[in-house]
Design brief:
The structure is a single chain. The protein has helices at about 5-20, 35-60, 115-125, 130-135, 145-150, 160-170, 185-200, 220-230, 235-245, 255-275, 280-295, and strands spanning about 65-75, 80-90, 95-105, 140, 155-160. The protein is globular, with a radius of gyration of 25 Å. Helix 6 (about 160-170) runs antiparallel to helix 10 (about 255-275), helix 7 crosses helix 8 (about 220-230) and helix 10 (about 255-275) packs antiparallel against helix 11. It contains eleven helices and five strands, in the order H-H-E-E-E-H-H-E-H-E-H-H-H-H-H-H. By secondary structure, it is an alpha/beta fold. It has a five-stranded mixed β-sheet with strand order 3-2-1-4-5.
Length: about 300
Amino acid sequence: MFEIPAFTELAQTILDMGTTHGQCNVKDLLPSGVTISRFTQKKYESLRAEVLPTVRKAIADVLACGASTDMWTDDHRKVSYTCITLHYVDDNWEFNSRVICTCAFPVGAKKTALNLKTELLKQLSEFGLTPEEINRLVFVSDQAANVQAALSQWVHNSCIAHILNTVLKHTFKKSKEGDEEDDHGACIEQCKTMTTFFKHSGLHLRLKQSLKQECETRWDTKLEMVKSVLDAFEDIQSILLERGEMHRMSYISKDTLQLLVQFLQPFKQATEELSGSNYPTINLVALWKTTLMTHC
């Protein structure tokens, strides 16, 4: 945080004020929450007025504007949020992506298709789009059944990056309860448990390279985890051998790790390219589909 330009600029401003005016009350320097809220709302209105005409023009040019939407839940407060981003081409043939809202989903409301659709229409209308303009949008979302049903009346495409993430989840998942995992799936699962063990026990401090844990909701972290275990393989092996706990890596071998990295690397590259926000990506879908099918 301390390296973020905005923070260092704020710190510098406060120091400069102290140098210029001498000792002063910090409450006189920092704005209140109400002031920040009002400023944020005015800034939003200003940006909306600037962006809306360009968006409307793009919508008028059929298929020149799309909307992507997603939902997530804050793990701490358990509040669900909705985000809508508009993607459009302007008069200079530049591709733009603008987040037009990130708002809390109505408290207590079930995430049914009808409620999702109602909230989506509400936010798009508050941004300034008419029903006719909304009907011309092309929507992109994940493959959640309720989201797909909410968007069913409009032109809708599933997000290819979400699809790739789902493909990889099922690739290493047991087909049904009671089935044995293959060597690759067992290796990945043991990488997870071993990484957790090293971090909780403090043994990761003895490694020259840090171990990275997989996060189910973040793409490509499976590859990052496997690569981190591969990079620290000798040190991990030495520590566990010293402690008499080699059973913690009974399914992990260097050959399997290298094979997994080789297999997952193209998926990472595909996800990164297909998740671009500064350029169109739909033209890359067929190319990457062919590439990954050949790779597999």
